Amino acid sequence: MWELNNKSGAENNSTPLVAERRLHYFLLFIYLVVVFRLWIMPLGSSLWLDETVTYWNVMYGPLKSLARSTEIAGQFHLYMLIESMSVKLFGLNEIALRLPSVVASCLSSCLIYRLAKRFSSGETGMFAAIMFVCMPEICLESSNARPYALTILCSLCAISQLIKLHDSFRWRYVVGYVMAATLMVYMHHISAPFLFVFVMYSLIFTNGSLDHLRIYIIHISVFVLLIPLVYLVVFTGKNTSILSFAGTPGIYTLIRTIVTDLVLVILLCYYASKISLKNEVKGLLPFYNKQIDAFLCLWFICPVLLFYAISLATDYKLFYPRYMILAYPALVLLLAAILQKNRLVLSRYATLIIVCAFSIITIGGKERYPSLHNEDWRGALSAAKGIAVTSNIPILFNSGYLVTFQQEWKSQTSDDWELSPLSAYQVKTRVIPLPLRLTPNAGDYLETNVLKQILSEQSFVVVHRGQSSSVDSWVNDHVRDRGYERLKQGYFAGVSVILYKKHRDLLAVPGRTSPYL
């Protein structure tokens, strides 16, 4: 009888465990579906502009890559070495270039899970990992041949090791933290201000006690290891203040950077549940506990405010989502805590599904293989090549880099980094570089070089970034009265291809325009 009762009790106790395990499997299924849709499916899409520079950097192997990383701004030796190894193993293609970022993002989501589990519970950890996948700012860099995903991984490794170091002062945690924090900055120099987030963690969780002086010495050692990088930046770095498309941010931009679309969706679901379910939804605060909440808020807010201040006070316009990307894991952890406030399991999971659906619809779009950066250089140059190669006509080309408005275009070749899309998607015809903007020097170049070459051709192709270009308008104004028709071949998700074709029977009457315009 005792055995029967004991067996019955064991079965009753196991029932919640089985239900919890099933819920975790369901969360894992959601995680894999969203990762596949938002991170895996874009792997084969066309490289966008900055990714083509990565291609240009690694196309001739590791040694050449290290030399090229020194030539231009925004190319980092450690990251390019990793990219070179990936290309060596998997070939020079879009998937191989993006694979390190996807692997790093998956590992980052695992660390996010472990942090949230430590702060709260395993379910909160799964919520955080899934929302990490769904966050647009993270999603854009997770399948991107740029160093941001690997920089996030280094930052999360550093925080994880630092937490363990505070729990137990062991040398393996010391080495782990110092290596991860140092590699983070070497991976991308813009992450250097994030080192102060690590210091803030120590300040919060040690209360400035002298017993933990050795932890602050460890923080100082990280800065010491960055001295070679300072030397590299000072003596080989390039001025990047003019190379950003970002402008001076306003207060609305600051608010929207903090209150993102994902935050709005979570808060909307939270307050809808609060109203409809009443006592089944806890208060918004605290998220975890006072110390953790303080650290997570500082982790998220401080980098955003710092880059906002830099963008306001200097010529360096750094207030752009990808430059503040190290702050967003903290936001994910806060949002996961808000989701956990709902006591009803069904309501929590319904909110999570709404978040996932919102992200897939707004980020992934309707395309089967979405290019999250909305630039199809592969399609545009394929179309241009199809026209130009068969007719043996020139391609007038501008990549859209801001630096191309101040270069000597006459000396450029298709192997220069300013024309990096031509390295990734080669065309076997004559290429005439175009300036980005109409400046006095650009006008002279267009008059004496470009116009002289194209007027001897029966047709030519113009390829430029964006739907419109002042230089393309200049070309159109100077050739339409000479019998050329402007035939737009297509807009390839951010890249325009235009064919100019001369008809002998079209009279070159001043002021007369083509019926195709």
Structure report:
- With 517 residues, this protein is mainly alpha-helical.
- 61% of the residues lie in helices and 6% in strands.
- It contains 21 helices and 5 strands.
- The chain has helices at 2-40, 49-58, 62-71, 77-90, 94-119, 122-134, 136-142, 148-167, 171-187, 195-206, 213-225, 227-236, 251-258, 261-277, 290-313, 328-339, 345-364, 377-391, 420-424, 440-454, 470-479; strands at 395-398, 431-433, 459-465, 484-491, 495-502.
- The protein has a 5-stranded mixed beta sheet, sandwiched between helices.
- The model is unreliable at 1-14 and 506-517 (pLDDT under 50).
Low-confidence stretches: 1-14, 506-517
- Please report the total strand number as a whole number: 5
Cα(first) to Cα(last) distance is 93 Å
Largest sheet features: 5 strands, mixed
Strand order of the largest sheet: 2-1-3-5-4
The pLDDT mean sits at: 85
Shape: globular
Succession of helices and strands = HHHHHHHHHHHHHHHHHHEHEHEHEE
Provide a count of the helices. 21
Helix content: 55-70%
Q: What is the structural class?
A: mainly alpha
Query: Which percent range describes the beta-strand content?
Result: 5-15%
Radius of gyration: 27 Å
